[in-house]
Amino acid sequence: MFTDEYFMKMALQEAEIAFEKDEVPIGCVVVSNNRVIARAHNLTETLNDVTAHAEMQAITSAANFLGGKYLVNCTLYVTLEPCVMCSGALSWSQISKVVIGARDEQRGFINKNLSLHSKTEIVSGIMENECSSIVKEFFKAKR
């Protein structure tokens, strides 16, 4: 029951909330022991803060929930590949696993030849079509 798809659907729900707020529709959840401990979506427009990416919000929320700065034994599910800033924060958090919906060939950390913490497992392509479609729809409406 608790598959990568199960939790990615929750991240996609967060992306939909962002879409409704006219934020770039990226969402994520942080899971520990099959329990969602943080949910977040982009808030850069709402907070007028370029660092208010979904991942940054989720990292902070999860760390507060756990009472410490490290997210060992946690998994972050994110609808779009993290940017350089977010990948740095994820690396510092020592998160155990990152599950990516859609790749971001232009702004994502993978094509920038960056890596996360050496012990972090990365899985990509979970619900890729759904995760990329919402972003494409958002930017199509902006043009």
From TrEMBL:
Zn(2+) binds at H53, C83, C86. Its cofactor is Zn(2+). Pfam families: dCMP_cyt_deam_1. Residues 2-112 form the CMP/dCMP-type deaminase domain. It catalyses: adenosine(34) in tRNA + H2O + H(+) = inosine(34) in tRNA + NH4(+). InterPro entries: APOBEC/CMP_deaminase_Zn-bd (IPR016192), CMP_dCMP_dom (IPR002125), Cytidine_deaminase-like (IPR016193), tRNA_aden_deaminase (IPR028883). Keywords: Hydrolase, Metal-binding, tRNA processing, Zinc. PROSITE patterns: CYT_DCMP_DEAMINASES_1, CYT_DCMP_DEAMINASES_2. It is an enzyme of class 3 (hydrolase). Its EC number is 3.5.4.33. Binds 1 zinc ion per subunit. The active site is at E55. Homodimer. Catalyzes the deamination of adenosine to inosine at the wobble position 34 of tRNA(Arg2). Belongs to the cytidine and deoxycytidylate deaminase family. ADAT2 subfamily. This is tRNA-specific adenosine deaminase. It comes from Chryseobacterium luquanense. The gene is tadA.
